[in-house]
Write a structure and sequence with these properties.
homotetramer, alpha/beta, Rossmann fold, Dihydrodipicolinate Reductase, domain 2, 2 domains, 9-stranded mixed β-sheet
Chain lengths: 373, 373, 373, 373
Amino acid sequence: MKTLRIGLVGAGFMGKAHALAYRSVAGVFRLPVDVTLELIADASQEAADRAARDFGFARATGDWRTLVTDTQVDVVSITAPNVLHVPIAAAAIAAGKHVHCEKPLAPTAGEARSLVEAAEKAGVKTQVGFNYVKNPLIALAREIIEQGEIGEPVSFRGIHAEDYMADAATPWHFRMDPAGGAGVIADLGSHIIAMARYLLGPISEVCGHLETVIAQRPAATGSARMRAVEADDIAHAMVRFARGCTGTIEASWIAHGRKMQIEFEVVGSKGALAFTQERFNELRLYQAQGETSRNGFRTIVAGPDHPPYGAFCPAPGHQLGFNDLKTIEMRDFLLDIAGEPRARADFREGWEVQKVIDAIIRSSRSRQWVRLD
Amino acid sequence: MKTLRIGLVGAGFMGKAHALAYRSVAGVFRLPVDVTLELIADASQEAADRAARDFGFARATGDWRTLVTDTQVDVVSITAPNVLHVPIAAAAIAAGKHVHCEKPLAPTAGEARSLVEAAEKAGVKTQVGFNYVKNPLIALAREIIEQGEIGEPVSFRGIHAEDYMADAATPWHFRMDPAGGAGVIADLGSHIIAMARYLLGPISEVCGHLETVIAQRPAATGSARMRAVEADDIAHAMVRFARGCTGTIEASWIAHGRKMQIEFEVVGSKGALAFTQERFNELRLYQAQGETSRNGFRTIVAGPDHPPYGAFCPAPGHQLGFNDLKTIEMRDFLLDIAGEPRARADFREGWEVQKVIDAIIRSSRSRQWVRLD
Amino acid sequence: MKTLRIGLVGAGFMGKAHALAYRSVAGVFRLPVDVTLELIADASQEAADRAARDFGFARATGDWRTLVTDTQVDVVSITAPNVLHVPIAAAAIAAGKHVHCEKPLAPTAGEARSLVEAAEKAGVKTQVGFNYVKNPLIALAREIIEQGEIGEPVSFRGIHAEDYMADAATPWHFRMDPAGGAGVIADLGSHIIAMARYLLGPISEVCGHLETVIAQRPAATGSARMRAVEADDIAHAMVRFARGCTGTIEASWIAHGRKMQIEFEVVGSKGALAFTQERFNELRLYQAQGETSRNGFRTIVAGPDHPPYGAFCPAPGHQLGFNDLKTIEMRDFLLDIAGEPRARADFREGWEVQKVIDAIIRSSRSRQWVRLD
Amino acid sequence: MKTLRIGLVGAGFMGKAHALAYRSVAGVFRLPVDVTLELIADASQEAADRAARDFGFARATGDWRTLVTDTQVDVVSITAPNVLHVPIAAAAIAAGKHVHCEKPLAPTAGEARSLVEAAEKAGVKTQVGFNYVKNPLIALAREIIEQGEIGEPVSFRGIHAEDYMADAATPWHFRMDPAGGAGVIADLGSHIIAMARYLLGPISEVCGHLETVIAQRPAATGSARMRAVEADDIAHAMVRFARGCTGTIEASWIAHGRKMQIEFEVVGSKGALAFTQERFNELRLYQAQGETSRNGFRTIVAGPDHPPYGAFCPAPGHQLGFNDLKTIEMRDFLLDIAGEPRARADFREGWEVQKVIDAIIRSSRSRQWVRLD
């Protein structure tokens, strides 16, 4: 059995999530490949050494440039700050590595496109970290929609709201660097746009509005100096899908009290689906059939009837956690590399999501609807 | 003690709700006036006679014109089809009656304005049936916002979705008559716009989109003939409030599974409020204070701490029903007439709401933002 | 049409609830009888006069003895302190009145039995105020059970918990007077026992435990003198129903945070029902059928499919309130008097409930199972 | 750094859960020891070989007797059928291994005691698989109770209900073998008893009732032969804790619709805690303080404020899954072995839980309260 050697860039929040997923994936799933944790890169050699010990990587480096060209690395996983996604991914592709990159893939659709073209030319596999669509109940939601169980979709409401930037005293940070792209519409909006596309297909038209509520923040933790913020912290958009139906997209990182509100409702001509990541082991389904006196939204609880839940636990109701979604994501990536493609959120998907983000930004500036090509 | 003699136009859904509220109001509250059910009008004398017996009115008429000029009537309550609101209200004002009218007040802001001017000139009291803002917990929500308990509002999401038109086999009916105004943006949208205004004040700018999903319906129950539908059955709008913050408004009468989803979330700089009419005896409050390990949205249950809940029941948790909201609404109207004004949803408020609706319609046509005067 | 003249004893919490229900009932329902509010009695003439004005009664008295024999009164509604239920009811029956009495009917089953025998001998109609079983969704729950839609019942969990006595500084009051019967097992326990019986039929055996947690309270508001409390403030019982299945009953009036937790779950051989009064316009139904991947508890929202909801409002999801349950209760009582019996919670039912309470008390003392006759 | 070599007995549901936890634990946490997956035993060599490949064990055996004495194994994890727990654990202890055993530890308290005494004599570390108490929010609940944040506990309601045996066509299986102990009171009841003890300390007295609802089942899958079932499938108990307060314990494996209802409510003299495993990343806290008009249960969402959540993810609301609880459990066991004790659910705790189970069984037979020694 072939062994894929992982090189991980970044040892922060998502770096650890990737590492844990790579550690678990071959124990959860029967895979046609093996996985080893080969090399980790972080901002300094010291930090990388510590991360290697913590996460179980064989080697460490303080320079991602070394990692992407290391001959012992087959797969590069990128969890660096957003502004570095493109250069690292481009270098890894150039070195012939398969590349997994966290979202948002690139600051603009144009840069995302370059990565897609490079990867396709190089013949390497790619993936973008839209982990929330990996939820078995989201797969179920898609199946329910595709099989017409709620009829033809007529509307969509999608939200991704959190509150990690709600405190005006939280200092400026890399997510607000215009060089890295937009603000919350990219950081969180990309997730709910990817979700919308996963469930209902391409978005053809948008009318968006971006708002910067907290217009300046401390330049750094404990700093008295204030730095202007240009990035949006609330984003709204009305959208039309290519299939015809309409909907809304909303993103906020200043939504006090919301820790992980990725929420959607899909209404169809015969029923509806409602979901929130706040209770992501539940999916609510309404079907306009049967005796009305006994009808209502039913709460489906995740279980082995919803693959690949059963690989984690053969009994329903035990619940998957966030890191399990990441493990499913890595399975899909590894299967894709092994020639059994399942993943759909490749760089091309990242590019498509970025096109929607770009269109929302343009729409917000022009204060008009914008059609996607 | 003065007695106010009620004349009710319409004996359907809302007609009964008005009648029940007038029956109860003086038992629930200590009022400076008495109330008697004097005269009811419905489409025919026979229907009106039956309604008079059912609801306890002294007299009945098959012609609303008779009612509005009846000298034994002090107050006219209008629950007729939308298209009749303006003519009945105008006639009642002309006859010097105090007028309560169900929403939407008028098909256009211009017509609403005429009613406002006529009523103010005539010196009669008016009210529009925005019953949902009468909920004691909505009063609490407003108080929390006004007192800065969640800081300065930064965003609003408002929804009013139901499914009573979700079945394409449901025939065309008066709510779809363009002569009566817009579709769901007027029928349900008016409620959530009134709610938004009640909580956060005037709306200064909108960007809306109206959609007609079910483009034709049976002309009548059991009819094979189809009739084209022009009215919107889904409405979206991005809005800006005069106070500065932004938000969204959404209305749908084809939202399968939703029976009464008037839902909002107000995010402020220090907390948030979340509410749904589906559980309207609960209000969820988050405040970014205290020990974070113990923090979270708290579910406030309606009780006597939330006036005027205690007038219905001195113990918390027993719950008000929809008809109780209507009783509070009638109290406010009667107090207003008695010279102890509390109600704010007078015809002027109906006009303001209609201005927002009109602006959303115009915006949907021009596909651009529209500023309210 | 015959007119029933109401005499109401007590103008407190439940007195007002009765008054409001009698005011509304003939407007909500088409009844074969009329209702007038004839006479109200309270602790003093002055209090009664005020209540008469507030609630709309024609006359007032400071002595319930006067009321129960008043020739202009057909129906006596008793909302006096528990300890007075038996003497007032007995006197009213002796005077040939129909009698509605709040729960608990009597301090002991023996006294309840005397009332039953007297009423049956006198040929008057009776009712006990088990208002929570009047919920349209509880009627639905019973129908679902009776029609076998969840199979044969195998277990029941019933709770009635509130927190109005949770504060140890709340003074001693009449509900703790041993002359009035037991504590929370009678005051709240009677409700959940009535619910259990309504859904599943007679209880044949109990094993109970009563606990007095707050063993002394201020003798009166503001009093420094403490008074010993003998009454239970937490009650537990394991029960067996005559039909065979088992279950538990629990009551508490010191359950901090719970304002109205009447909650039950009935498990059957093919499904289950779950309900809480905290959201009493919802009933949750699970049926072990259909595709398991789409199955789950469905949340049924009260609507006109659930009689008599439609008499209050023809649209689903608008919600009934507590006072509406009381209106349904009065309808059933009045129909019973008018010769169209629907009510089942007559004094005989009150006696049966009291037998269960008595058995739980005996069991708690003997620390053994007790069989009901 | 010392390396602990794991030997796992059983490759089914819990076997995989143990394997995944051992794989992850050193990546999630910084541990003073390393872990390797050394040897796995299953019913046959072939099954064990497959499991070794699937889970990443170095070696495999078809005989647990070989495993427990293998010199390359330091730690034995037992996930075999209940009836084998005692012999395997005893053999492993005898061989000087540290032993982790799934619950229930033993069929009777006497057998559990023997294991405790053997382990203490041998000086090996032990743990029983009460994974649900490992939830960071359960640690928070305990802390809240211990610090008096809800005052002095006055009552407890604990439930563990699932529906995996609800279908009468589900065949007889090892959990029903009387040789392995009781039925659901041991299988699920042990979890909620352990939870009760974790939160409130020792139970001093019980009054229980066990019920066998489905009295016979197919002898095996597809078999026409029926086999009598002696084991309980519903269990109820009233309990008293040594600290004084009372409560109830309930277990069912035939609770249709319930997939993982481990639910409790602890009421204290100043507040309450409510929890359900169905939404185990949430804890509901009520405190009787502050302005009552703003008070209510608050929903605390798991986050890095609740150790060791942050080791899995530094952002709140992302949610842990079931396997993560198992990883925390393994951390505690490994730290205990490494001389940094944290785990409290050792074999002594398993024995204590079994004493409660035994007392409930005795009480059910004698139909009286039973005092624990």
